[in-house]
């Protein structure tokens, strides 16, 4: 009887270990391919953001009346991120979040979903299959200093355009000539879009390496602030991750320096891989509020 009891206890223990191991395996498998469930947490950029302006226009979230007046229909429940980095942090830290960011700013901390079956890549922006893209512009007044003009020449040169390409953006001129260093010296202030800022920092660093007589300061804010600062003369060059408005063009001359895609991003644990343009519009206008409705 004692031997039988020991055998029975051993069998029960074996069954218990098997159940625990099976549960762990099931749990790990579920986590690896899990899909967010429950209320969708929409994260959007602040008013004045060029990325927001381009995003709402491209997805039809912005509407116009007969007089041409624009209305941004982004849901009032959206969480507002005032910089690209803040957007990425919000989506990274929330399994149910959805947002958007510059393609060149992407990292493994978030996941870009396909839109209408097309992956968010520079190649697909170029071939037209991924249609969510916008220009990166700099804007200047007519009385540009010699130092600021020299920095702009560098950005548009083969050297500057290679830096743009190397950082995941699409250059506007693949036949540009090599930069020819001049005698310019002085200080240059560049201000505006947080989406353009990362690549502008790279351009600044490389430029100062070949022209040590010019010091470039990059100030991060948003596209509208950048255009206002350039127009008012508080910076030499404004940055915008969108086209300039007709009003802005009255005082400023835009120059396109790159093309960038806008990625629709979710938490890496979200199993959603593809969304249609209509689904994205529905989510950001508040018509779709639960992940179960986009499975």
UniProtKB/TrEMBL annotation:
The record's similarity note reads: Belongs to the PstS family.
Residue ranges occupied by any PBP domain in the UniProt entry: 34-158, 180-293
The annotated topology with respect to the bilayer is: Lipid-anchor
Q: Does the keyword S-adenosyl-L-methionine apply?
A: no
Q: Which Pfam families match?
A: PBP_like_2
Source organism, top-level taxon: Bacteria
Q: How does it assemble?
A: The complex is composed of two ATP-binding proteins (PstB), two transmembrane proteins (PstC and PstA) and a solute-binding protein (PstS).
According to UniProt, the name of this protein is Substrate-binding domain-containing protein
As for what it does, the entry says:
Part of the ABC transporter complex PstSACB involved in phosphate import.
Extent of the signal sequence: 1-20
What are the UniProt keywords, alphabetically?
A: Lipoprotein, Palmitate, Phosphate transport, Signal, Transport
**Where is this protein found?**
Cell membrane
Say which species the protein is native to.
Butyricicoccus intestinisimiae
């Amino acid at each position: 009887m004692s031997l039988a009891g020991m055998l029975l206890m051993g069998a029960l223990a074996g069954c218990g270990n098997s159940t625990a191991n099976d549960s762990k395996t099931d749990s790990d498998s579920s986590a690896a391919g899990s899909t967010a469930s429950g209320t969708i947490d929409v994260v959007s950029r602040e008013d004045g953001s060029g990325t927001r302006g381009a995003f709402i226009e491209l997805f039809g979230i912005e509407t116009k009346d007969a007089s041409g007046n624009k209305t941004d229909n982004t849901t009032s429940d959206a969480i507002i991120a005032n910089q690209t980095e803040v957007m990425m942090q919000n989506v990274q830290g929330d399994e149910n979040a959805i947002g958007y960011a510059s393609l060149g700013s992407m990292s493994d901390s978030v996941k870009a979903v396909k839109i209408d079956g097309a992956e968010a890549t520079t190649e697909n922006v170029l071939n037209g299959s991924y249609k969510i893209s916008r220009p990166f512009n700099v804007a200047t007044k007519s009385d540009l200093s010699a130092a600021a003009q020299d920095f702009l020449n560098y950005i548009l040169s083969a050297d500057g355009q290679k830096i743009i390409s190397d950082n995941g953006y699409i250059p506007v001129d693949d036949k540009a000539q090599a930069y020819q260093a001049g005698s310019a010296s002085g200080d240059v202030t560049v201000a505006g879009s947080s989406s353009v800022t990362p690549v502008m920092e790279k351009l600044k660093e490389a430029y100062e390496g070949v022209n040590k007589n010019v010091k470039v300061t990059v100030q991060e804010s948003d596209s509208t602030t950048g255009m206002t600062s350039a127009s008012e003369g508080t910076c030499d060059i404004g940055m915008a991750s969108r086209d300039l408005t007709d009003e802005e063009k009255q005082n400023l001359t835009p120059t396109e320096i790159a093309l960038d895609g806008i990625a629709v991003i979710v938490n890496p644990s979200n199993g959603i891989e593809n969304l249609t343009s209509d689904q994205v519009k529905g989510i950001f206008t508040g018509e779709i509020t639960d992940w179960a409705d986009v499975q």
